[in-house]
């Protein structure tokens, strides 16, 4: 039995959880059912605890619950009780069961005795208000150095209580129960400041920063400091016990407002790797869904993203976690669609194919329309519909998102691509109908992007310049196009160095389109060339092929050619005339 336990631990190091599960079952079967707890208590406990955790990892939730209850019945120490509470919380999260998590969480928190949890909503709201004021004052009086030098608590009751509060807060936010999320975060922060640091402390600071950002609409004074502290605290604790989704949460909620979104992505491979090694499928799924749905808008090529996304998806599917893998299915299918050189426009706007089926995905989504799986899906559908000229469908997608007040689309980095393509769709609807009501949304978005840029957000400028060019094209007169030419030139230059390849392609595509009413064929052709360069650089071969077929008599793009060549990265573009840059003089 001990040999089987050691073999399962060896498998865990390599994330071979199905094999580990088999060894644990064999080991437990070798012990006498009637005498194992009296004759081999420690071994029986280790095998049962490990087997319960492995059943969670491979998706056998009922078996996990049964084994975990046995652990609770046989527990002799507070550490064992804490392990029971931790696993029970993870089971409810894996089942997307907030009410079950609340019930189990209250029982665990009140039994551990470090704080008192109130479930009554009016009492919770009042308590949250006073806790926020108290904790805020404590944070303001404490320097960063003092926080980082707080003692590391070895009390398992403290780390368990804070872990459960973090889980309640996170799931509460995902379920749009912001009062519950804020209340749990304030309780956790109070415990951290008064009792000491633990492995889940970085997530406490991350969540507190997110709520500060949400409440003060980005103008609060605490959230930048708390984000910085969360990053520093992560260096004190391994991801294996620190909730590996902390960094993605930082990146897409508030960290992007002070630093370029690309800077933090280097941490993610470690977070994903350690999530697998620990077997924390809940954190792993959260990390992967937030990371992948943000990373698709970065500068990494789609083929490389496909390889990365597939590896995670396959591993989660092999472990039997179809449900927790759902949030990453649409983004993987989108990456595949954008590389599909044989698809028609009608096919490419559908998230159907190897990874998922739209209709089945929506039927399997949680019934609440605010679920982040559904919102990620709508954002990606909006992008596809706009990209392939289905503007009525695109408008339907963004109206569905606007009907929901959701944290991810309001306060995270994802609001940039969402609002950009929402605004671009509205501009196109105005051009086709002449109805000025369609200008209301994009001009509101334009002001928001401008405001974020003025507040120092380093990711806002390229998005703002694309919309500014579009808006000027509508307001400027065709008889006096100088202002438009300057806006186009400014928008193209603004994209350089920001690392948003899809925006570079879009800016050049719109520049070419906006020059149609003018006799500027050479400049238009230059932007056509550049648009296809950046689409190919990004890996969006579906868009590239469709546009190439529509303009085959104007340009060709090849890997190498004996004609004059213009280099962008490693892509070579065959030009029939020298490229020209547009300027005020033109």
* Measured distance between first and last alpha carbons: 81 Å
User: Which bin fits the share of residues in helices?
Assistant: 55-70%
Give a short account of the largest sheet.
Answer: 2 strands, antiparallel
Helix and strand composition category: mainly alpha
Give the count of helical stretches: 30
Average pLDDT, rounded to a whole number, is: 81
Based on CA atoms alone, the radius of gyration comes out at 27 Å
Give the low-pLDDT segments: 552-586
Label the overall shape. globular
- Major β-sheet strand ordering: 1-2
How much of the polypeptide forms β-strand, as a percent range?
A: under 5%
Report on the structure:
The protein has 586 residues and is mostly helical. The chain has helices spanning 2-13, 17-29, 36-39, 41-57, 61-74, 78-94, 98-112, 121-141, 144-148, 156-174, 178-195, 201-215, 223-234, 246-253, 268-278, 281-295, 302-318, 329-338, 345-348, 358-364, 372-387, 391-402, 407-411, 415-433, 440-454, 461-475, 482-495, 501-514, 521-538, 541-550; strands at 565-568, 571-574. A two-stranded antiparallel sheet has the order 1-2. The longest helix is centred in the N-terminal third of the chain and has 21 residues, at 121-141. The protein is globular. 48% of the residues are buried. The model is unreliable at 552-586 (pLDDT under 50).
């Amino acid at each position: 039995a001990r040999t089987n336990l050691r073999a399962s631990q060896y498998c865990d190091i390599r994330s071979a959880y199905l094999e580990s599960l088999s060894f644990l079952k064999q080991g437990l079967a070798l012990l006498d059912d009637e005498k194992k707890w009296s004759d081999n208590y420690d071994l029986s406990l280790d095998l049962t605890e490990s087997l319960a955790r492995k059943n969670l990892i491979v998706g056998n939730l009922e078996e996990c619950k049964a084994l975990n209850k046995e652990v609770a019945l046989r527990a002799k120490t507070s550490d064992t009780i804490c392990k029971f509470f931790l696993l029970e919380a993870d089971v409810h999260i894996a089942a997307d069961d907030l009410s079950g998590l609340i019930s189990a969480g209250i029982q665990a928190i009140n039994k551990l005795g470090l704080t008192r949890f109130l479930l009554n909503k009016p009492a919770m709201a009042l308590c949250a208000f006073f806790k926020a004021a108290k904790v805020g004052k404590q944070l303001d009086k404490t320097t960063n150095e003092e926080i980082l030098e707080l003692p590391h608590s070895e009390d398992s009751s403290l780390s368990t209580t804070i872990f459960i509060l973090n889980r309640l807060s996170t799931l509460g936010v995902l379920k749009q129960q912001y009062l519950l999320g804020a209340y749990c975060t304030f309780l956790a922060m109070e415990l951290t400041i008064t009792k000491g640091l633990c492995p889940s402390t970085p997530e406490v600071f991350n969540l507190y920063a997110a709520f500060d950002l949400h409440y003060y609409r980005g103008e609060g004074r605490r959230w930048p400091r708390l984000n910085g502290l969360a990053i520093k605290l992560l260096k004190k604790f391994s991801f294996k016990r620190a909730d590996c989704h902390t960094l993605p949460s930082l990146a897409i909620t508030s960290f992007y407002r002070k630093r370029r979104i690309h800077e933090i992505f280097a941490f993610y491979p470690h977070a994903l790797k350690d999530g697998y090694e620990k077997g924390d499928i809940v954190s792993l799924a959260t990390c992967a869904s937030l990371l992948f749905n943000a990373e698709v808008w970065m500068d990494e090529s789609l083929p490389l993203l496909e390889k990365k996304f597939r590896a995670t998806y396959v591993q989660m599917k092999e472990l039997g976690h179809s449900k927790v893998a759902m949030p990453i299915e649409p983004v993987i299918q989108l990456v595949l669609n954008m590389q599909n050189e044989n698809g028609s426009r009608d096919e490419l706007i559908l998230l159907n194919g190897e990874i998922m089926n739209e209709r089945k995905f929506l039927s399997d989504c949680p019934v609440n329309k605010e679920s982040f799986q559904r919102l990620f899906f709508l954002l990606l559908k909006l992008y596809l519909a706009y990209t392939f000229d289905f503007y009525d469908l695109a408008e339907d997608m963004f109206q569905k998102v606007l009907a929901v007040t959701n944290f991810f689309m309001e306060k995270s980095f994802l609001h940039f691509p969402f609002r950009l393509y929402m605004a671009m769709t509205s501009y196109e609807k105005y051009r086709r109908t002449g109805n000025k009501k369609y200008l209301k949304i994009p001009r509101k978005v334009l002001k928001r992007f401008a405001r974020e840029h003025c507040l120092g957000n380093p990711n806002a400028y390229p998005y703002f310049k694309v919309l500014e060019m579009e808006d000027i094209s509508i307001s400027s007169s065709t008889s006096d196009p100088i202002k438009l030419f300057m806006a186009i030139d400014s928008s193209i230059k603004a994209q350089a160095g920001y690392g948003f390849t899809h925006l570079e392609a879009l800016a050049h595509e719109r520049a070419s389109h906006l020059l149609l009413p003018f006799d500027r064929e050479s400049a238009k052709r230059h932007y056509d060339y550049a648009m296809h360069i950046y689409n190919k650089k990004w890996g969006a071969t579906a868009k590239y092929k469709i546009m190439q077929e529509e303009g085959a008599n104007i340009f060709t793009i090849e890997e190498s050619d004996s004609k004059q060549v213009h280099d962008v990265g490693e892509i070579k573009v065959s030009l029939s005339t020298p490229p020209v840059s547009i300027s005020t003089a033109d």
